[in-house]
Each structure stands twice: as structure tokens, then as C-alpha cells.
Amino acid sequence: MSKIHTIDPTSLAPKNSSLKNSKSNDKEQKTNLLGLSKAQLADFFESIGEKKFRATQVMKWIYQYGVTDFYQMTNLSKKLQSKLDKLAEVVPPTVKFKQFSEDGTRKWVFEVTGGSLVETVLIPAEDNKQHGRKTLCISSQVGCALDCSFCSTGKQGFERDLTASEIIGQLWVANQSYMEDVPVTERENRVTNVVMMGMGEPLLNYRPVVASMLLMLDDHAFGMSKRRVTLSTSGVVPRMYKLAEDIDVALAISLHAPNDELRNELVPINKKYPLADLIAAAKSYVYDSNPRQKKHVTIEYVMLAGVNDTDEHAHQLATLLKDLPSKINLIPFNPFPHAPYGRSSNNRIHAFSNILNQAGFVCTIRQTRGDDIDAACGQLVGQVADRTRRSEKWKEAVAKRHQQNRKVI
Ligand code: SAH
Ligand code: SF4
What we know:
It is a single chain. This protein has about 400 residues and is of the alpha/beta class. Helices cover about 35% and strands about 15% of the residues. The protein contains 13 helices and 14 strands. The strands form three sheets. It has a ten-stranded mixed sheet with strand order 3-4-5-6-9-10-11-12-13-14. Strands 1-2 form a two-stranded parallel ribbon. Iron/sulfur cluster binds next to α5.
């Protein structure tokens, strides 16, 4: 598992911020303004002899109008435009390929610095209206170190953390895809919701993830509502407490099992931070972070046939969550090659959901969308190469399970 560092809350700047590079490296290197916080951008303008307020002007151009060409930033003087053109740039991650599905789902595969590939998926509300809800599922890491047994990203192993510009760049590109051929002054951001539910464990790439989410909320950048930005975690407990101090966003917890024995098997980080600690951290997030606000956490629960989906599991789950203000989201398992699980039947999912409803919980069943472009949740591994031997070892383990006559698809 990745090492957990203590973060200085006053400094949420991306670790690889190019601000420093631009001063120390050769003069030719331009500073990428995408992903810099408002404070960093203000520092940048000061460092080039300009007023700090330029930061908010330029942020609006970049994040609200999708403009990367400084000469199109018409409220800057010609002199400043050409100075910026020499010293700075606005560079999103490179789109390797994109696929737009019939149902409105859009998927991008990005090639980030170093050649790694990551995926981003946009899922519209069912009616797919022009100004309707559009939820973007953003990746935070290349691969993931946490190795949950039902997750294709986990099977890929961990490669590296994404930078703030690579994280916020996913949202920027998704919004940009609705701006093509639209005159600059008529452009508007269309993504209404963000979920940090793509590849990776966001709380193990803490600093760039929080810096990116601050840009999502910032009125000079994307100006999204804090209830429409959701971070999903498998339960990195110390970082959940830290998150509550640093930013107010919605929290989702990938629970998937109602007891430690099963959760240890499905979500191995549970061995380090067992359920009692996780539930305590979730309660603290709900009650302590902003006591004036009525909040809840979303509990994600993947439905694995015959593994975690019995009536008994539903009753255990209701007991476990009884004092935690929560909404439960049941996720039909998305199979992938060699997965050792099957998806619970619709009848089973509804029976499970009914038990939770009767116990007083709001329980929803996640719609699987974008199946035709492999964009459904948990299939985000796509074309990404397996750079570790983990999937090989895993296939061997699955073969062993076959022999043990366990339920395998
Ligand atoms: N690492 C974070 C966020 C990324 S995973 C986390 O675990 O919360 C986003 C969600 O997709 C999690 O709830 C995860 O458990 C779920 N998921 C992963 N693989 C899946 C699969 N094969 N089918 C359905 N859901 C899956
Ligand atoms: Fe990582 Fe989340 Fe997948 Fe677990 S479910 S392996 S934490 S991405």
C-alpha cells in the first residue's frame, strides 16, 4: 500500500507544480497554468511582475470559457498576452482516444506524462437533455495499490499518482467537448456533477486531489456546488479526518461488506482500518465537519452473487449503519475478464434493497450505463496495460478458486 504522508493543510499545491520549475529550470520551460490554485496563480503573476488580480481573470478564461490561447483573453493587454504566451501555457492531458455512446455517455482515454493511460467517463441523466445532469467520473491515480478483489483497476496494480493538472484536466476536457464550435462568449460548462470514482484511491493521492476539488468549487474556476462533488474512498481512515478539515465535499464510502471477515477479503485495506474505525470516521465526517449542515454519507455496496448479497448480509448492514446518517447505493457488479464473481440477480438486488428500505434507509440501485463503450463502473481498466505481474498472479489464484468449486464466471 502507498505510504501515507502528513499534509500541511496550508499548502495543498500540487507537488509537481511547475511554478518552481519555471524559476529553477532553463528559461524556455513554460509554466502550465492548468491545475494551479488561485494562490499559486497569483504568485505566478507576481513573479513575472504583474498584479495578483490577473489570476482570477485568467482562471475565468481557462475554466469557464475553455480558452488556452492567451491572445483570446480579451481583457488582458496586448503586452501581457504576449508575455504570457512566452512564459506560460495551458496544457490539458493528451486525449489518446475518445468514444461517445448512443445513450450520451462519453469516455476519454488520456495519455499522461510518461505514457500511462487513464480513463474518464461522463454519464448523463437518463433523458440526456442538453442542460440535464451530467456526472463525470474522474481518475486520481494510474492503477491502484489497494487490490480490492472485485475491481479491475485494483488488478492492474499501482503505477503512479496523477498531478493536479492531470486530474482537473479531465474535467476541463469533458467540458471542452461541449464547447467545440461554440463562440467563446456563449460557452458554458456542462458537467454538473463530479465523482472521484475512476481509477485509483483519491485519499492516497491526497494533495493533488484536494487541490483539484478546490478548483472545482472555486467560483473563478468551475464554481460547482459542494454537494455535487463527491469523493469516494475505500476507507483510508486517517485521511477521512483530514479531508473534513481541508474541504467540504460529499463523501462516499466503498463498504461492500457488513462484517470484517468478509470485508477483509473484498477490500483488503479493511485489515488496516476495520469497520469500527471506518464507521467512526464516517460519523465524524457527518457530524463534526460542519455541524450546522444536515449531511449524510453515501454507502457503496457492490452486489456479488452468493458472496455479500444474502438477506442476512442486508440485516447485518442495517445494524452496522443504524447510527450513521447514510444513503445506500447498491452497485450491480460489472464483470471483467477472469473476475471471480458474478452479478447478483435483479430479484436478489431488489430483495436486499427492500430489507434496507424496511429498516428505514434510502437505498438506490445504480443504473449501469455506457456498457457499449466499456465505460461502466469498474471497467475503467480499458486498454491500460498491466505493468505489474499482479493480474497474472491473480489469474492463477482465480484458477485455484475454480478448482475449489467456488462461484466463478
Ligand atoms: N478507490 C475509490 C474510488 C474508485 S472505485 C473507492 O474504492 O471508493 C469507485 C467505485 O466503483 C467503488 O465503490 C468501487 O468499489 C466500485 N467498483 C470497483 N470495481 C467494480 C466492479 N467490477 N463492479 C462494480 N463496482 C465496482
Ligand atoms: Fe482501488 Fe477503489 Fe478499485 Fe479498491 S475499488 S482497488 S480502492 S480503485
